[in-house]
């Protein structure tokens, strides 16, 4: 018999996925997210994950100094509002925000509020992209808190953010720290002048790499993306949020063009089963891995 997760004496956890579109109004987006968190809680969610930078449009499509005005302290106004909701609804909230750490110092950061409303801490995005229409290095300083796991009322959760999702090293370290679920708030989409075959290939790559993290580590992965047209119609955020179990099996897959709220039950005790039958963690040859710290393995 599998040993049950000791959190609340249960192994079953219900996670809420909130996939939504955003507007130019920060207050409107926050109020909308709060309403959707409450709706997810009413459906039975115990941990609710919001998408990356949910209080605004995805502003990193341009290098504009005015966009720094969107940032706030963490803890701060948004976490205060969400803390009250977490306490009222009895849910853990994962909230991705634009953090102003100090004058001229900003991060892409996710805060975690426990089910009693307490602020558990934050994770600062480690991998920062600089692609066409994703100019994040103009705004964000790479995270300096390391990888993080948060012990919530309903389990130990690991948080990574968007561009982190492409890196197996990040998911592995977070899992090795004891994360029972990996959450990825994210914001990614298609250029609307792109052909459909390229769109499909890009989405499949995005989903596949994250499901591989579930398989490699034997833990569920929850990826929450935004949806809708932004950048004056030049970008379609592709939605496609999903939940996969520790064997990479899709338990939920969202549409590419609709707002959705879904509650998915995960059995955290399955990780023990998967890791016993597919013992990837046990069989790691850790004594051979030191070269991974090199930029590239050559003579220089």
- Main beta sheet strand tally, sense and closure: 6 strands, mixed
The portion of residues forming beta strands comes to 25-35%
Q: What is the molecular shape?
A: globular
Model regions low in confidence, pLDDT < 50 over at least 5 residues: 1-9
Write the topology of this structure.
Elements: E1 12-19, H1 26-42, E2 47-49, H2 77-89, E3 92-102, E4 105-113, E5 119-124, E6 130-131, E7 134-135, E8 149-152, E9 155-159, H3 168-176, E10 181-186, E11 189-191, H4 196-217, E12 221-225, E13 227-230, E14 235-238, E15 242-244, E16 250-253, E17 260-267, H5 270-277
Helix pairs in contact: 1-2, 3-4
InterPro entries: Aliph_Amidase/BUP (IPR050345), C-N_Hydrolase (IPR003010), C-N_Hydrolase_sf (IPR036526)
GO molecular function: hydrolase activity
Keywords: Hydrolase
Explain this structure to me?
With 300 residues, the chain is α+β, with helices and mostly antiparallel strands. The protein has helices at residues 26-42, 77-89, 168-176, 196-217, 270-277; strands spanning 12-19, 47-49, 92-102, 105-113, 119-124, 130-131, 134-135, 149-152, 155-159, 181-186, 189-191, 221-225, 227-230, 235-238, 242-244, 250-253, 260-267. A hairpin with a 2-residue loop joins strand 6 (130-131) and strand 7. It is globular. The relative contact order is 0.16.
Task: Write a short abstract of this structure.
Residues 13-268 form the CN hydrolase domain. It contains five helices and 17 strands.
């Amino acid at each position: 018999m599998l040993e049950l997760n000791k959190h609340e004496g249960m192994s079953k956890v219900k996670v809420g996925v909130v996939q939504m579109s955003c507007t130019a109004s920060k207050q409107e987006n926050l109020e909308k997210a709060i309403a959707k968190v409450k709706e997810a809680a009413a459906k039975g969610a115990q941990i609710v994950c919001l998408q990356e930078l949910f209080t605004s449009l995805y502003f990193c499509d341009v290098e504009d100094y005015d966009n720094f005005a969107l940032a706030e302290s963490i803890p701060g106004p948004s976490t205060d509002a969400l803390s009250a909701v977490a306490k009222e609804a009895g849910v853990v909230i994962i909230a991705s925000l634009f953090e102003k750490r100090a004058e001229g110092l900003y991060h892409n950061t996710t805060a975690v509020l426990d089910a009693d409303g307490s602020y558990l801490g934050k994770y600062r995005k480690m991998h920062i992209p600089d692609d066409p229409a994703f100019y994040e290095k103009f705004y964000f300083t790479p995270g300096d808190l390391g990888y993080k796991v948060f012990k919530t009322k309903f389990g130990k959760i690991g948080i990574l953010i968007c561009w982190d999702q492409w890196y197996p090293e990040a998911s592995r370290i977070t899992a090795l720290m004891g994360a029972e679920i990996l959450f990825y708030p994210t914001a990614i989409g298609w250029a609307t002048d792109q052909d459909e075959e390229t769109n499909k290939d890009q989405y499949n790559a995005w989903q596949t790499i994250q499901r591989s993290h579930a398989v490699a580590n034997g833990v569920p992965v929850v990826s929450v993306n935004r949806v809708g047209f932004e950048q004056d119609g030049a970008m379609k955020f592709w939605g496609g949020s999903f939940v996969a179990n520790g064997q990479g099996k899709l338990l939920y897959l969202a549409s590419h063009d609709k707002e959705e709220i879904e509650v998915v039950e995960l059995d955290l005790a399955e990780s023990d089963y998967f890791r016993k039958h597919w013992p990837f963690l046990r069989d790691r040859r850790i004594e051979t891995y030191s070269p991974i710290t090199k930029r590239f393995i050559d003579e220089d």
